[in-house]
Write a structure and sequence with these properties.
alpha/beta, 464 residues, TAT_signal, DUF1501 domain-containing protein
Length: 464
């Protein structure tokens, strides 16, 4: 029987072992859905690291408009771009200062410029610390337009759906996924960190990207950890009351669920104390822009990276986000502000990495639900598929474009209608390249990225 849900198991996972574990847990699973996640424990062997590396995912929620982010600049391409969005096109003259000149020029004289608001990223690109991925998106396997039309290959579930494509981008599975590829990388390295709690860290709330099979994402605010108020400060003015509350919350219990709650509470209280102490020793001269919610998130990430030694961290995976990209309308008024906030935040973060002396050890990359249509709807653009993404860091083979520039056309050879790009590069290939740099072996990559083995090119070559 054909497996219509290949995302449930990695390609090389033992189905016999999985079924055996599932049978053993079936009774518990019927009452406690979380029990099934125990079956995944032990799938991947722990990895060791002696140096420090971090990945920082910057997710743009809503589906970023690719054509207003990386704008066609050579005259023929610009003319085509402008013809499809007469009310939305950025003027060519305003792009003159953000034209990207890669070390290896694109074929046929193609040129691109960043949106004017992303001007702070141009020096980073020119310093060979930033690369641009052309036409990347969610794929299960290599897909041509003919195959897409004939429905002869497996496609990501519920294309053009926000929730499902956000999940598939972050986890290789549709909405409801139990783990993401960032968290699964965290599974490999958590035991090698001084405190496993500080392996997968989100400054943007819960994200499936950071959920592991064993690694648990640790959420922070832009000011640091989230304390238990009655323990952080004296309860009713009494330190004795605070101590009693802490004891009540953390003492072992006979009941399985009560004991698990106490264990999690203790981990949270202990982590708060350790992180607060570690951050107290970190000061940054880099100025992050305000008001800018993304910059605020990246600033706490930078401070935590600065505290890496105090936290005993060797490998860390971070997640931050910026919303507002579902620009069905108001693209001309809303998107420029989003680009300015993104450009300023990324540039400040990269400067902070230089200040901390870890620019070569920290790689930052963008992601989004999907791209949007090239053809405008008068005031905005609609849900698409392929998109343009950035990757920044000292280990990036920068001043480069990765992939092939798509033809800008409505229902052209590189799109499936209205300028919805058919991705030529998969998120799995992108993630696999990052995973290789992070130190994840090819065998473990097949566990972390269940669709990667479907692609001949596993490493896109943009990392040193």
């Amino acid at each position: 029987m054909k497996n219509h849900f290949p995302h449930i198991l990695p390609d090389n996972a033992s189905r016999r072992a999985f079924l055996k574990r599932s049978a053993a847990l079936s009774v518990a699973a019927s009452a406690t859905p979380w029990a099934m996640s125990l079956a995944a424990m032990g799938e991947a062997a722990a990895a060791t690291a002696t140096d420090y590396k971090a990945l920082v995912c910057v997710f743009l929620y809503g589906g970023n408009d690719y054509a207003s982010t990386l704008v066609a600049y050579d005259q023929p391409s610009y003319d085509a771009y402008a013809s499809f969005r007469p009310n939305l096109a950025i003027s060519r003259t305003s792009l003159a200062g953000t034209v990207l000149n890669p070390t290896v020029p694109l074929a046929s004289g193609r040129q691109f410029a960043l949106a004017p608001g992303l001007a702070p990223l141009v020096p980073i690109f020119d310093a060979q610390q930033m690369a641009v991925l052309l036409n990347i998106g969610t794929l299960v396997e290599p897909t041509t337009k003919a195959q897409y039309t004939a429905k002869s290959v497996q496609l990501p579930p519920k294309l053009f759906s926000h929730n499902d494509q956000q999940s598939f981008w972050q986890s290789s599975s549709p909405e409801g996924a139990a783990s993401g590829w960032g968290g699964r990388m965290g599974d490999l390295y958590a035991s090698g960190n001084g405190n496993a709690t500080f392996t997968c860290i989100s400054a943007a709330g819960n994200a499936v990207y950071l959920a592991g099979n064993t690694a648990v994402q640790y959420q922070v605010t832009t000011n640091g950890s989230v304390p238990v108020n009655g323990i952080q400060s004296a309860l009713f003015g009494s330190t004795a009351c605070s101590a009693a509350l802490a004891d009540l919350m953390t003492q072992p219990r006979a009941h399985l669920l009560e004991n698990e709650y106490a264990r999690v509470a203790k981990r949270s209280i202990d982590a708060n104390g350790q992180l607060t102490s570690a951050l107290a020793g970190v000061t940054l001269a880099t100025q992050f822009p305000t008001p800018n919610s993304l910059a605020d998130q990246l600033k706490i990430v930078a401070r935590m990276i600065g505290a890496r030694s105090a936290l005993g961290a060797k490998r860390q995976v971070f997640f931050v986000s910026l919303g507002g990209f579902d620009t069905h309308d108001g693209l001309v008024t809303q998107h420029p502000t989003l680009m300015t906030n993104l450009g300023n935040a990324l540039a400040s973060f990269q400067q902070a990495m230089q200040e901390l002396g870890v620019a070569d050890a920290v790689t930052t990359f963008t992601g989004s639900d999907f791209g949007r249509t090239l053809v405008g709807n008068n005031d905005g653009s609609d849900h698409g598929w392929g998109n343009m993404q950035f990757v920044l860091g000292g280990a990036v083979k920068g001043k480069s474009f990765v992939g092939t520039a798509p033809v800008l056309a409505n229902n052209g050879p590189d799109d499936v209608g209205q300028g919805r790009l058919l991705p030529s590069t998969s998120v799995d290939q992108f993630a696999g390249t990052l995973a290789t740099w992070f130190g994840v072996s090819q065998t473990d990559q097949d566990m972390v990225l269940p669709h990667l083995s479907h692609f001949t090119t596993r490493n896109l070559g943009f990392m040193a």
